[in-house]
Amino acid sequence: PCCSVAGTTLTNAVIVGGADVPVGAKQECCNLCTNHPQCTSWTWDSLKVCALKAGEPQMIENTAAGILTTWSGTPSGTSC
Description:
With 80 residues, this protein is mostly beta strands. It has one helix spanning 26-34, and strands spanning 4-6, 8-10, 21-22, 41-45, 49-53, 59-61, 70-73.
């Protein structure tokens, strides 16, 4: 299982090819991150879009919460 925080997004850099990846579930987004050697964090939203991020995870509050629900997390086996 993955650690994730609802209502957050990330400001660290997107991995090349890791933006706007369509996936059906939050766990699938985490799995992509867990299996990518450069991924340190991920964001998934209610439109079922995943973004894989590199570098130190920098979570911030989702400012579009009225429009889009988001979850951000780290690879499986790590803490948020």
